[in-house]
Specification:
The protein has 340 residues and is an alpha/beta fold. Helix content is 48%, strand content 16%.
């Protein structure tokens, strides 16, 4: 994350050395380290996978082959929640996963799950590459360690946008009555309900058929996923409306982290920068290309310019979530909203 990321990573590395001096760091030696397992639930073309490969390559080079990581895509190690629980147990070492699911484990991450907190990719980048993003990352690191998770980075200026087969969404009233498949994330479901839609949690593997048969009218996801899954074959309309962030978070098992020497902990933290950069670059590139590909296939795409009605309709969600958080979180949210 540029300067902000450098500062937090430096802090992580410093903490690692301090932990070692107190006898809390790991006992691993270069020759004793087995290949790490890096898991995610997405396709091999998705930024999670490409960022994982970039991280693994950098880590191996940085440690002259002492540390290696094998990347397991497509849910080979389980679904997102399964993999995160594997990190907590120490049976999986690294994971790239969604902010939505991670927010159920690490509460500070939920700031990034609030609807319309970001105006778009440029605003996301300004926030996450600046002091506000640095503060959120520090809070996530602290909270993550309490549940056996080591937060290494957050990346990807991507957003989940609505797609449906009924009508183009040009105003908030167009959501009324639409049955939209959402993730099993309370903030996501409440957001679509607030806009007038009927959120329908549904296993992702069943979604194409559900769209094809009209069980649901539409779904929401990142443009790259909408295009990769060929939903344009059974859906006519995509509205570029940055409802919620589709960025990713890089997690590590705290148990794995604590087994490493200080030098190897520092190497992991530094290689995490490569993961973040890959996520940022690939996220922007893939979403942009996906929208163009779907449009070429006949999908009608429109962009919402004035988000005021959508923000106003979902204000109560901010109040509901933030009432259980310290006042610093509300202040941070307000600063994000005011940042141009």
């Amino acid at each position: 994350m540029r300067n902000a990321s450098a500062r937090i990573i430096a802090g992580i590395a410093g903490a690692a050395i301090l932990a070692a001096s107190l006898g809390l760091a790991g006992i691993a030696r270069a020759g004793e380290v087995k290949p790490f397992r890096y898991g995610h639930a997405n396709a091999v073309t998705y930024p999670y996978h490409l960022a994982g490969l970039a991280f693994a390559k950098d880590l191996e080079q940085r440690t002259k082959g002492a540390l290696k990581a094998n990347v397991f895509p497509l849910g080979q190690l389980g679904g997102e929640r399964d993999i995160t629980e594997g990190l907590q147990l120490g049976t999986v070492d690294f994971q790239a996963t969604s902010l939505g699911v991670t927010g159920t484990f690490i509460k500070p991450v939920n700031i990034l799950n609030l609807p319309f907190i970001f105006k778009g990719p440029d605003h996301w980048t300004k926030v996450m590459h600046g002091p506000l993003g640095e503060w959120i990352l520090k809070e996530a690191v602290s909270a993550g360690e309490k549940v056996n998770l080591k937060v290494l980075g957050i990346g990807g200026a991507m957003f989940r946008v609505p797609m449906n087969n009924v009508r183009a969404i040009t105003k908030i009233e167009d959501f009324k009555g639409l049955k939209i498949r959402t993730m099993e994330v309370p903030l996501h479901k409440e957001t679509y309900k607030a806009m007038g839609a009927s959120p329908v949690p549904l296993p992702f593997g069943e979604l194409y058929t559900a769209l094809q048969t009209g069980v649901v009218d539409g779904n929401e996801n990142g443009p790259a996923t909408l295009e990769a899954m060929k939903f344009y074959e059974v859906q006519k309309y995509v509205t570029y409306l940055p409802v919620v962030s589709n960025g990713g978070i890089f997690l590590m098992s705290l148990k794995t982290w604590q087994r490493l020497s200080p030098e190897h902990q520092q190497a992991v933290a530094e290689s995490a920068r490569v993961w973040v950069k890959s996520m940022d670059d690939e996220g922007l590139k893939q979403d942009s290309e996906a929208l163009k590909k779907m449009e070429a296939k006949g999908t009608k795409i429109n962009t919402i310019k004035d988000m005021t009605p959508y923000v106003n309709a979902t204000k109560h969600i901010y109040d509901q979530m933030l009432k259980d958080y310290p006042k610093e979180y509300r202040e941070t949210v307000d600063r994000i909203l005011k940042l141009e």
